[in-house]
Model the fold of this input.
Amino acid sequence: MSAVANPATAAECLRVGAGFSQGDRNWIAEQFATLDARLASFHADATEIEVSVKDREARGQKVTLECWIAGRQKIVTTSAEEDLHAALNDVRDDLRRRLNDAKTRQEPRHNKHLRDVGHPEGVVDQTEDETGLPAADPSRADAETA
Done:
């Protein structure tokens, strides 16, 4: 994994939208601090998150968290929890889950050794022969072919 020179953090990338004041920003940033580990793989200047609330403190309030990361689709999470604190936690956890899912979709599948360690030049994988094709399985040497 390549290290990011200026990793994104929730506090740095957070904007407060409708329903919140700038005074709420620090409190919300503290609630979203657990996103930092997931956001750290993205550049801070290419990442934005915005939280807003409709009908704050009313029975049908709706909290929305939007995340923009350069080169990716916008992620939108919402919560209709009546408690504001619970709603913020709900959208935060949903965003973390969706970022994890997006990260998993971009990694090579079934090739953990390709994700973790690259092969040095000139070294042939023991599961492959010199041509780069899978090596013959000796346990199947007596198998008939049709």
